[in-house]
Amino acid sequence: MGEFKENKIYTIEDSMKGKTKSTLLHLDDFPKYDLFLSQVIEFIEDLFNDETYTVNIIQNYIKSGVIAKPYQGKKKGYTKIHLIQLVFVSFMRPVLT
Q1: SS3 48
Q2: Which of 24, 37, 51 lies closest to 83 in space, CA to CA?
Q3: What is the mean pLDDT of residues 61-83?
């Protein structure tokens, strides 16, 4: 059982090393203004070409508490913080699934 655990750890580590080397993002790479949900999906899909996002996926992340809820009363409720959370989740998707 210990061998399986070690192999799984190496697999996760290797997966994350490959992701972080290929796509480092800086805060300047994120939009300065708040976005609509459709713009959020477009932004994330541009960063992760092989990933597909839908309104339902993002809403499920919000319902389950994976990312913060958008600000109520604002049409453009998705901030830079929401985008950072989604980018982090996108990096973790291959590891967690």
Answers
A1: coil
A2: 37
A3: 86
Q: Give the SS3 label for residue 77.
A: coil
CA distances from 36 to 20, 31, 50, 65, 93 (A): 27, 12, 22, 19, 23
Instruction: Determine which of 8-17, 60-69, 88-97 has the lowest per-residue pLDDT on average.
Output: 8-17
CA–CA separation, 49 and 63 (whole Å)? 25
Residue 50 DSSP symbol:
T
pLDDT of residue 20 exceeding 50, the answer is: no
Query: Where in the chain are the domains?
Result: 23-96
